[in-house]
Task: inverse folding
């Protein structure tokens, strides 16, 4: 049995401590005030926070690898390792709009990674190609298409883990949204110019939330609430949000948190290959050169191209840019995204959960990470 003793524990929802987290066979066996008799605990420094490992719903790449370009188990291993080094213990590798063969290869690669028990891979996120051309952002226009019957059939094949899909509700009708939700997808709305009523109809048909709130979607107006208005006014929808100082103004982030709360707002990285990569962070996306300048990824026209961000940095941004309390920011990076996917074994520190953990210093730098109760190999 492994025992980690901390003066400050964040369990996915609230702070407590001192506490001793008991780990056996890769899972949390108990959380006690002190280690039981006969067990010698590992004492963490007194100013360190022990928290669940971060859960990221949207990771396009890392370590110089773009998942679209290397939809293989080897590519996934490199991406996952880059983010694990920054405390993300569960992520959804994300495919940007592409031709069907790339999407199929990506799904097959994730199946293989899951079969291997690859650390960090929790499922898959398919972002497009069933999106709006008007709100495509950096997604290649040539790949954007309607969702046909053949696409729907293979997308709805059995899959052994979490699946998230981002689509535009003006492109994908309610019946197809219902079919995807019935097949086990968490359906998010994004890259869309839909009006508020169309978004609300999609939510009523089984969509669960919104991808990177504010970005690549119709905005909030007093007479045309748009996608943003649908998200902020919903009683149950969740939304992911990128907090890097480039994708959303801190006041907009804070407004979303005020409206939705930490139970319905998820931090994501939307990370690109520049994370954990050597060199200047530049890469190519669908033939376009993407440059990294002052933490911002853009093409030559200035279009944002994902983010140079980790979940640990997103938590830091939530606290220090948007003024969100630390317990709320940590929940947005752990329990909330896990719950969004229906994953009950991650994102929390409680008996029965996987012992995927991070230790954070007061400045939110990483002091340690554990996968199944052990440091990464």
Result:
């Amino acid at each position: 049995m492994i025992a980690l003793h901390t003066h400050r524990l964040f369990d996915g929802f609230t702070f407590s401590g001192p506490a001793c987290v008991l780990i056996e066979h890769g899972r949390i066996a108990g959380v006690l005030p002190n280690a039981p008799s006969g067990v010698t605990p590992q004492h963490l420094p007194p100013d360190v926070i022990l928290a669940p490992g971060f859960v990221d719903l949207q990771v396009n790449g890392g370590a110089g690898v773009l998942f679209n370009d290397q939809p293989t188990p080897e590519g996934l291993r490199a991406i996952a390792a880059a983010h694990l080094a920054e405390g993300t213990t569960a992520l959804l590798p994300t495919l940007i709009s592409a031709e069907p063969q790339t999407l199929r290869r990506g799904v097959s690669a994730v199946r293989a990674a899951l079969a291997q028990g690859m650390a960090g891979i929790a499922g898959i996120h398919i972002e497009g190609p069933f999106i709006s051309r008007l709100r495509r952002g950096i997604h290649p226009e040539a790949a954007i298409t309607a969702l046909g019957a053949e696409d729907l059939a293979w997308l709805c094949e059995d899959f052994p883990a979490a699946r998230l899909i981002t689509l535009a509700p003006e492109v994908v009708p309610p019946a197809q949204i219902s079919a995807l939700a019935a097949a086990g997808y968490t359906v998010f709305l994004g890259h869309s110019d839909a009006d508020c009523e169309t978004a609300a109809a999609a939510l009523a048909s089984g969509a669960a939330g919104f991808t990177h709130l504010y970005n690549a979607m119709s905005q909030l107006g007093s007479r045309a609430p748009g996608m943003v208005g649908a998200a902020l006014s919903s009683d149950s929808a969740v939304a992911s949000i990128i907090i890097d100082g480039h994708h959303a103004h801190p006041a907009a982030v804070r407004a979303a948190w005020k409206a939705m709360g930490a139970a319905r707002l998820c931090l994501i990285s939307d990370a690109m290959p520049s994370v954990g990569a050597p060199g200047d962070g530049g890469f190519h996306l669908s033939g376009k050169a993407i440059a990294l300048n002052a933490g911002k990824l853009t093409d030559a026209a200035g279009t944002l191209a994902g983010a140079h961000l980790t979940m640990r940095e997103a938590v830091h941004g939530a606290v220090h840019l948007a003024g969100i309390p630390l317990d709320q920011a940590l929940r947005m990076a752990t329990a909330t995204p896990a719950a969004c996917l229906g994953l009950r074994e991650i994102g929390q520190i409680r008996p029965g959960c996987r012992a995927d953990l991070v230790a954070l210093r007061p400045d939110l730098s990483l002091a340690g990470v554990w996968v199944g109760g052990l440091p990464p190999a």
About this structure: The first helix runs from residue 73 to 84. The mean pLDDT is 97. Residues 2-50+353-370 form a domain with the Urease, subunit C; domain 1 fold (CATH 2.30.40.10). The longest strand covers residues 88-96.
